[in-house]
Amino acid sequence: MLTLVDRIIGGLEKKNKIITPEEKKSIAIHEAGHATTSWLLQYAHPLVKVTIVPRGRSLGAAWYLPEERSITTKEQILDDMCSALGGRAAEEITFGKISTGALSDLEKVTKQAYAMVSVYGLNDKIGNISFYDPQGNNQFTKPYSDVTARVIDEEVSKMIEEQYVRAKKILSDNKDQLEALAQKLLDHEVIFKEDLVEIFGKRPWDKEEVFVAKEVDISVPENETEESKSDAEAKTESPNGELPENELEESTEEKSADETISESEKKDEKPSGETSE
């Protein structure tokens, strides 16, 4: 199933693409950086799969399972940005240099940072102001001054750099696990959530489904049991085969009434041998 998803989202696997061992190691470190930071951040999306198999325009990819959110907090966006910058941060920590492999990551965090500052009002310096234009009338002009534009650019750059430094700090503190994860990627090319649990342990923020069994009292109240028992005894025969006393009385009354009716009918009848005068 995941192979089908990879093909739909990432494109066909490029088995004939030539990648040098140095490039392959750099890709593995990059993807391991994404996986490590997302695993160690509370609000980052849960990881599903990491691969260094080239597909489409991508040389590697990390698949996540986004949580369903109706609204997003500032902390959640910052954790997402930090996770996206984890790939480049891992390259710098491991090799002491960076590459062009983080293009899509930089595009993503830049859009997120500008949205936080100029649209959602999540920046302290700009304040609770939104320059969002749903009509698209401000494509060529900005609804703010040049001074405000300069402040927005500065705050965006500051925000991104803070998350980059944060990602490097996380990866530096967990460098051994980062290298172990990258080596596992080099050996197998594809790793899953279970591999990260083996290296890092379970995430303390993951929600676990807990099923609680409840005891249901289906016993009948004592008074109802006694009433049902008495009714059952009244409808059943006695052990010696005789009818219960109340039914015996009813039967005797019915019998006496039948005898009275039969005697009266006999008096009205005439003997068959007599004729009327």
What do you see in this structure?
A three-stranded antiparallel sheet has the order 2-1-3. The longest helix has 28 residues, at 146-173. α3 (74-84) runs antiparallel to α5 (103-118) and α3 crosses α6 (146-173). The chain has two domains: 2-200, Up-down Bundle (Methane Monooxygenase Hydroxylase, Chain G, domain 1); 222-265, no CATH class. By secondary structure, it is mainly alpha-helical. Helices cover 56% and strands 4% of the residues.
CATH T-level topology of the largest domain: Methane Monooxygenase Hydroxylase, Chain G, domain 1
Distance between the termini: 114 Å
Tell me what the CATH architecture of the largest domain is.
Up-down Bundle
* CATH class identity of the largest domain: Mainly Alpha
Structural class: mainly alpha
**Strands, count:** 3
What ranges have pLDDT less than 50 throughout 5 or more consecutive residues? 209-220, 269-277
Average pLDDT over all residues? 77
Helix content: 55-70%
State the order of secondary-structure elements, H for helix, E for strand: HHEEHHHHHEHHH
Largest sheet, in brief, is: 3 strands, antiparallel
The gyration radius over C-alpha positions equals 42 Å
Q: How many individual domains?
A: 2
Strand order of the largest sheet: 2-1-3
Strand content: under 5%
